[in-house]
## 1
Amino acid sequence: MAIAKHIKELMNSKGSSVIRKMFEEGIQLKAKFGEDKVYDFSLGNPDMPPPEKIYQVVNEIAKDNSKDRHAYMPNAGYTETRKAMADKVNFEQNLTDDSALNENHVVMSVGAAGALNSVFKAILNSEDEVIVPCPFFAEYRSYVSNFGGNLIPVKSKKDFSLDVEAIKNALTSKTTAVLINSPNNPSGKIYSESDIKELASVLYEHGKNTGITPYLICDEPYRAITYNGKKVTSVFPLYDNAVVVTSFAKNLSLPGERIGFIAVNPKCEDAKEFIAACTYTTRTLGYVNAPAFFQKVVAKCWNADVDYSMYTNRCKMITEVVKNAGIEFVEPEGAFYLFCKAPMPILQENKQFIINNGDEEICDEFAFCDHLKKYNILCAPGSGFGCPGYFRMAFCVSENTIKNCAEPLQLAKQSW
Amino acid sequence: MAIAKHIKELMNSKGSSVIRKMFEEGIQLKAKFGEDKVYDFSLGNPDMPPPEKIYQVVNEIAKDNSKDRHAYMPNAGYTETRKAMADKVNFEQNLTDDSALNENHVVMSVGAAGALNSVFKAILNSEDEVIVPCPFFAEYRSYVSNFGGNLIPVKSKKDFSLDVEAIKNALTSKTTAVLINSPNNPSGKIYSESDIKELASVLYEHGKNTGITPYLICDEPYRAITYNGKKVTSVFPLYDNAVVVTSFAKNLSLPGERIGFIAVNPKCEDAKEFIAACTYTTRTLGYVNAPAFFQKVVAKCWNADVDYSMYTNRCKMITEVVKNAGIEFVEPEGAFYLFCKAPMPILQENKQFIINNGDEEICDEFAFCDHLKKYNILCAPGSGFGCPGYFRMAFCVSENTIKNCAEPLQLAKQSW
């Protein structure tokens, strides 16, 4: 008896595991040095409290002792909750009448991560391919490989916008889906309407040629969090075989409660079968159903008024701090991450960390993140996100953490 | 784009899906004929309300608006919750001092189903085998096949006690685990201490011969629900490489909330690595962590006083009703299921439903369950549980449902 070989290898590999490890190290560092002496940008754990309405509704539902309050319900979730989620998607994507979703287009899930696993289990045959533009949420690798699929990372443009030509070139007869995440974790990029239109036409064209029109899976937990009035493109009106997966982890600050959903475009060729399959995989993967209590909560709170100006301020602050340290980054349009270029080493002893990445020299960002750790600054290396030479700072942390990080970050940069 | 081929096949297959389908049909039948005219024994959805303490604590935690109340925590769960679960297992298994568990032996999970998926993902290499005595919870098939493993059903004795000799004969160099469920769903059987001891010695012997001592995975959501003062055998003192997976779905009537845990025997050879692997798979399978709110609830409620006499009464009532209809069954020792033999058809036109099952003739229980449905009686066919010719009645339903079912059951039997 022993752990499975491939799991052992994955656990020991660099990359995605590093983020969670840092989060757990951060807890230990804070216990050792004090909360205010550790600058933990490792994890997208929203530090904004949930809106007041969440507390009200949680208390209401806590008082509800009606029969079946905590019982099983159909695997797809409560009808009233699925109706509310359909309303949410219709509102966000401006869908009415024939193009609108109803409860039968929705499966409630254990967060967006649970949603993606249910979807990939439902659609992936062995060796099927899922194309994802770089950078991408590190965990996608697991979600796709869990079910025998291959994640195909594809380069993006310099500003991290979609390189539709690159996606086109990556399409094969094995392509089951293209997975996009907008606003993007880790880059903060919002994919433009014109890029999505171009992508849609490439995918339709591929469908005509091969008979397989890929799903376009839109992972949208950050949809509500945008800067400078930017809006997230609504994909359903632009592409039929589109699916939204999302959660209330980020917009309502409920990541620990594991509540999200899958919604399919009513115009999707096999919408009904897709929902039936996701309901089945939600059951058989052992989620069984999304947690009952928070299904009731989000049914009433999905349209709660939330003020994200807190993140706007933090975004301004951290871009200042990082700019002042002479570190390059791409200005985020949404979400709460800053994706930075690991700076080239200054000290002779660190020149070893200049490495070759195809046709350019970059800095080994693992080494730089280790270096930052000496200053109690915790960041996530970019390789996990498909972008070696970069690192991610999650700025869903207190203003003090950002402010007080300025000096140690300068020092770290100067002693690199 | 289309659903994965194997998922399509599984969705269209008879067997396990049938239970959930019945549950959902039951909801529709009740809407049509009225709650009191449908006798729905399809699903183990506890009809006993959660104990009063649950409501108290849910209300307490609802009032807690401290920072991070709904945030991410380490993937294994809150330390305080894992400590409480260690206390629970130590109490149940009478473990003290060196043999006792602490928080590092526990991973919180999305119910027992989530726990089993995390465990199998952690330990199964492709084509590894998991032995399970018949009958067994139908969903085990999916939980093992999800990760490329093979479930190896093994016959039990006539009274559904363990046939250790049969298990011994099924052991191979591919056997990674033996999975037991006691009290058993669907038979209600509790595996005796002497049988577990015999099993342990067979597994140790196999370990000596092959170098691989299988895990013994004990799925125990029904541990607290037993009849006639029967106690569930504690496995940790009897076998080192033992694991408990369980939930609060049945003992605290919280199935919809998806809260459970994995606990490893501290004496297990690779306890530390096992927990690390299950923590990793809990993350990468998209559970991420057990729902935060109910982690807090069960930390305070695991030892709540619960009176299961309601199930004792129901057990007496249903055995009366089924006996009076002339249907054979095995007396349950725990859980809330009655596992019955589908009676041989009386009518000439139904003789076609007598089928051959190895060396004996049995009744096609799918046909009998379909027949029962005409009388609005919903039961789960036994083939899904590895026992063709049987059907399961979940008696976690109102006394009226049981009482009022007597007449239609008699009628159904007579017109079969």
## 2
Amino acid sequence: MIRWIAFDADDTLWENEKYYHKGQVLLAALLEPYQPNEVVEATLLQIETSNLPWYGYGIKSFGLSMIETAIQLSNGEVGSKEINSILNHLRYMLSQPAELLPGVLETIDILLQKDFRLMVITKGDLLDQERKLTNSKLQKYFEAYEVVSDKLDETYARILSRYDILPNEFLMVGNSLRSDILPVIKIGGYGVYIPHTFTWEHEQVSGTSSHADGYFQIESFKELPGVIEKIKTL
Amino acid sequence: MIRWIAFDADDTLWENEKYYHKGQVLLAALLEPYQPNEVVEATLLQIETSNLPWYGYGIKSFGLSMIETAIQLSNGEVGSKEINSILNHLRYMLSQPAELLPGVLETIDILLQKDFRLMVITKGDLLDQERKLTNSKLQKYFEAYEVVSDKLDETYARILSRYDILPNEFLMVGNSLRSDILPVIKIGGYGVYIPHTFTWEHEQVSGTSSHADGYFQIESFKELPGVIEKIKTL
């Protein structure tokens, strides 16, 4: 029944959020003379969220929101030195190699042997996501690589229609219930949720359960072929 | 012979560069105590160009490069006030309506009546380009809307292959010889160049001519149906 498996990229195939987390730590250190850590974290999240409709997802948006937070929380006291550290951190983030999560390569190989067709559906910055795909050396395994501005149910519906995939032929794997799993369930596809140590607060949803919402949850990428076998027998 | 017509978006369908130009003027004013206008312009271009492989195209990249230029040229003397004006200008740019260039709507109508299939191929920020397309109300006329990280000959080859288009069935219309015209000619398609008053220096190429390089040049969007008739008789 399932013919296509789509993967989220950041924190599903490779590490990502940990570099954002380092950015938060840097910002808290820069703003230490002005505000406690918790205030910095909460304000950054609030500014990032309110900037989302304008900036979208990705490292550049994060950097611009960091700068805005620094100015706001220091009451305009931060100067070029602090802003420059933020710019340098963006460069650091943009030059990280795509560090594959454990089990990704072997599991993709198993799935290809079972004749599944594979694609990636990711949010974020177009150029940066392309850079990471090239850098990951995973490109050859995927028939499609879709960078989208948001992951809503209509986003998935559009992609399925583009590739002539029926919802019940489609399974999405990702670390965000909000973006990877719930919208796919909503349009009639399958979702496998693999939580990651770091997940951005914006992506968190509460009050869901795999039982009530009809998705499957595993602890590691390696369990994917197993859970797919289980879905096939349902 | 020509079945598909693809359009660049910024400064081909709607105004764009003029808002970047306003940003340059703002930056020159902010840095007036430190450096003359010419130095600001040249340094911004140099910083934007060196950031392109990291940041890609678009408004957020422009903003980050403006901030970097401000810090560098003031020797770290600019502070939160100046950086804040830059952030505000980005918001201003991101909230501009898509202001159609003269003749766009009528000409698209004529081309559709002649049964051409239409698409848009644009660089820049994914979310911002989607916002402008929605805002322009042109969405319904295009069968495809491709936001790409760069416009190289392989980019066009990939898009043509995705839509099953032969190069000689494809005509690209745009205001950048470097990005819209020359790569399309190189893969065997047709190019119609419509210069715009403002074209970013990075997009300029010298030493080309429509005669030697095999593209067509018109002064206004309205001349497009006419030049296509001319191409058909070649």
